[in-house]
Amino acid sequence: MANTIVLPVPPSAKPRMTQADKWKGRQIVKKYYVFKDAVKLICASSKFVLGDNIEVIFYMQIPESMSKKKRLELDGTPHQKKPDIDNLLKAVMDSLLESDSNVHTVTAKKVWSLDPRIEITNR
Is the pTM of this model over 0.90? Predict the structure, then answer.
């Protein structure tokens, strides 16, 4: 039985961390931990548990600097820029699982969107 949750947070990729990040507090790392806490909180309050066969859709923010016409044209089309999809997946899975070794199937895609969010479906 498939169940879906919509996370109303902009997708964020897991940054490459260093030993110094334990005390240095780089802005990118702080932003990642805020994202991770938000994902955990939303899923916990909805009683959503990540399964072992998942589909994830990342709706990536269209830059405000683009014209309204271009933004409307891009909405829903494939997002083929950074961040990489594997780093986006890693951020979500690390937020929701102690160990992702039980996940056997992952389907993921990223698309441009006027409404940035993440949709996760257990299959």
Answer: yes
Angle between helices 85-96 and 27-45 (to 10 degrees): 50
Residue type, 4: T
List the beta bridge partners of residue 54.
106, 122
- Residue pLDDT, tens place only, 61-111: 999 999 999 999 999 999 999 999 999 999 999 999 988 888 999 999 999
Note down the domain range covering 92: 3-122
Please enumerate in sequence order all residues whose Cβ is within 8 A of that of 46, keeping only pairs 6 or more positions apart, or say none.
5
Question: How many domains does the chain contain in total?
Answer: 1
**CATH number of the domain encompassing residue 95:** 3.30.1330
